[in-house]
């Protein structure tokens, strides 16, 4: 099976409807990630076939759960997950991908240019210092920090009525227990990622 076929089957399994141009952009992103990874060490996963499930489909599993809001912040984006796949799948979203690592944001800027992602802004900044003109409806991260730290460092960026949407592996009982009293977990949803034999969960956190 080619990576494109694996991607198409995974998108269908997630219940998403993406057109040929969006699938081409996802494939182009995968190609860029593989190319830059040889020099910049963006991800430990290097095989294209594994990248489809570990990065693209894992990021896209967020899409059916990303209801409400038009502004998405991806904190500690690294190689662009889940922000870049989210921006490709949802061109109606305004997406900011933020990382303090200059090499990673250099890659992200190049990816945005080459893929023509007009709805993505790349920011090189420590998140606690980031002061955008407009706050975000949804703030997400895939491997940034534990939940309490994630909330602490980004609470100044969340719009009224907004949500933190954290992507986690196994059910994060201990992390949830350490959340501050002024926020609450709205729900924890198990995610099924096609081709990925690992537990994945999405944690929604809101202001109490």
TrEMBL record:
Its EC number is 2.1.1.170. The keyword Aminoacyl-tRNA synthetase does not apply. Its main location: cytoplasm. It is an enzyme of class 2 (transferase). Keywords: Cytoplasm, Methyltransferase, rRNA processing, S-adenosyl-L-methionine, Transferase. The keyword RNA-binding does not apply. Specifically methylates the N7 position of guanine in position 527 of 16S rRNA. Belongs to the methyltransferase superfamily. RNA methyltransferase RsmG family. This is Ribosomal RNA small subunit methyltransferase G. It comes from Crenobacter oryzisoli.
């Amino acid at each position: 099976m080619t990576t494109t076929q694996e991607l198409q089957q995974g998108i269908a399994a997630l219940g998403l409807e993406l057109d040929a141009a969006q699938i081409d952009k996802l494939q182009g992103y995968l190609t860029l990630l593989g190319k830059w990874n040889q020099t910049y060490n963006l991800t430990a996963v290097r095989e294209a076939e594994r990248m489809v499930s570990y990065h693209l489909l894992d990021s896209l599993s967020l899409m059916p759960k990303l209801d409400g809001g038009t502004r998405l912040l991806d904190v500690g984006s690294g190689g662009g997950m889940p922000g870049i796949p989210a921006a490709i799948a949802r061109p109606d979203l305004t997406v900011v991908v933020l990382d303090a690592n200059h090499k990673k944001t250099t890659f992200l800027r190049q990816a945005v240019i080459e893929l023509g992602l007009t709805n993505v802004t790349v920011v090189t900044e420590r998140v606690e210092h980031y002061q955008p003109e407009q706050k975000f409806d949804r703030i997400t991260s895939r491997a940034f920090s534990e939940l309490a730290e994630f909330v602490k460092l980004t609470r100044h960026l969340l719009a009224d009525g907004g949500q933190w949407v954290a992507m986690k592996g196994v059910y994060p009982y201990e992390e949830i227990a350490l959340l501050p009293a002024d926020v609450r977990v709205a729900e924890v949803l198990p995610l099924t990622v096609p081709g990925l034999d690992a537990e994945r969960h999405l944690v929604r956190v809101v202001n109490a």
